[in-house]
């Protein structure tokens, strides 16, 4: 499995008495969460710096994230407490917001991409990789008949990750080339696709046209797992 940048840090004992908490205010309405401080700082170097450094946030133990979506933040909180995504054993209302099981699975795709970007922004590496793993499975399973990420999702990923070589951006290119049909390219929206995305698609189709690889042969989940070395990748292969 992918390595965890927090693995060398001691797992926090949040069950102990009188554990310290931090307040996180999310979105324009300042939706409020009170969370165990150690849990937040263990998961995220961003929160560690903000809540234990010399910033005002560390003194007040309060961080404000006015531009974030409270719904996406709640999925992050769920993962903080459970180390997994919402599942059928969780509150039905949360499960419905995570994945209402509609044809094409667009809500879950949207949630995974937005949660991935959130984790990239706040340096939550473990969950960032897990969102990538889950998106791969979500897209790849023929039984789910998942729609390709649409223009809005691709724009959101490229604009917010700011790196054409980010694992999610590379996956969006690979997924497009792997599954798209000619109907996937409408004349109306062609100008909206990010330049880095279009360049990636053209480059990959050029490789196919020259006879190297093809639509059926190249998707490999480990390409998007941020493995540190070949040994780590070998240990992961076979799991996916
Ligand atoms: Zn892997």
UniProtKB/TrEMBL annotation:
Upper taxonomic lineage: Eukaryota, Fungi, Dikarya, Ascomycota, Pezizomycotina
SUPFAM superfamilies: POZ domain
Domain BTB as annotated: residue spans: 40-87
Protein name per UniProt: BTB domain-containing protein
Species per Swiss-Prot/TrEMBL record: Clathrospora elynae
PANTHER family reported in the protein's UniProt record: BTB DOMAIN-CONTAINING PROTEIN, BTB DOMAIN-CONTAINING PROTEIN-RELATED
Highest taxon in the source lineage: Eukaryota
Coiled coil: none
């Amino acid at each position: 499995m992918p390595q965890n940048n927090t693995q060398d840090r001691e797992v926090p004992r949040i069950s102990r008495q009188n554990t310290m908490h931090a307040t996180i205010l999310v979105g324009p309405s300042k939706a409020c969460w009170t969370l165990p401080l150690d849990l937040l700082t263990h998961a995220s170097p961003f929160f560690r710096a903000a809540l234990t450094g010399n910033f005002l946030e560390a003194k007040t133990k309060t961080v404000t994230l006015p531009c974030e979506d409270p719904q996406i933040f709640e999925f992050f909180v769920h993962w903080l407490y459970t180390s997994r995504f919402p599942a059928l054993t969780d509150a039905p209302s949360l499960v419905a917001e995570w994945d209402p099981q509609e044809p094409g699975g667009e809500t879950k795709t949207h949630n995974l991409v937005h949660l991935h970007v959130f984790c990239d922004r706040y340096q939550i590496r473990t969950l960032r990789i897990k969102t990538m793993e889950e998106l791969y499975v979500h897209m790849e399973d023929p039984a789910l008949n998942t729609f390709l990420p649409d223009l809005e999702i691709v724009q959101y990923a490229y604009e917010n990750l700011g790196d054409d070589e980010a694992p999610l951006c590379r996956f969006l290119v690979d997924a497009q080339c792997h599954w798209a049909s000619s109907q996937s390219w409408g004349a109306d929206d062609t100008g909206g696709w990010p330049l880095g995305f279009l360049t990636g698609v053209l480059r990959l189709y050029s490789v196919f046209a020259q006879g190297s690889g093809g639509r059926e042969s190249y998707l490999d989940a480990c390409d998007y797992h941020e493995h540190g070395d070949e040994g780590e990748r070998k240990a992961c292969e076979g799991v996916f």
